[in-house]
Amino acid sequence: MERFQCGKFHMQHLFFGWDSLKARLEFKGVVAVTMDLTKLDINQCPDKAYVPNAFKGTNKCDKKSSYCVPILGRGYETGGYKCECKQGYEYPFEDQITYYDGQLVEGEFINLVDNNKTRFHTYQCRIAAGSTTYVNFMTLFVMTCLSLLQI
């Protein structure tokens, strides 16, 4: 089997072509490309529609409370991301980290699919304390009227 280096073109080694009468395409051979997949990163986070990525949007982050951030250097494995809490939500544990690791989330998702005991549903950010202001407009109206009557 012959091997060629990238960047070098060998005119005498074409792998497909027309027959001499140019009537049909003939099969001339096979090209195999080998590469170390462990050095490629999978990006499972969402991206723009025109970005070619077969894995985009396949992360298991809770879409309501968190968003996906890719972690480079994890290789050709799922879980190369972290789930960070959206604004208005917070990481519920007192840890050194403030996100859910994608490898843990992926592992618990596999347990969920296999009907094993799982903590998948605990990998969600909780609503942050004081992140929303709840106003009952009827109470506000009554309090405003009472304050105006006392003047």
Automatic annotation (TrEMBL):
KW Cell membrane (keyword) present: yes
Membrane topology type: Multi-pass membrane protein
GO cellular component: plasma membrane
Main location: membrane
InterPro entries, alphabetized: GPR158/179, GPR158_179_extracellular
Record keywords, A-Z: Cell membrane, G-protein coupled receptor, Glycoprotein, Membrane, Receptor, Signal, Transducer, Transmembrane, Transmembrane helix
One GO MF term attached to the UniProt entry: G protein-coupled receptor activity
Similarity comment text for this entry: Belongs to the G-protein coupled receptor 3 family.
Protein name: GPR158/179 extracellular domain-containing protein
Species classification: Eukaryota, Metazoa, Ecdysozoa, Arthropoda, Hexapoda
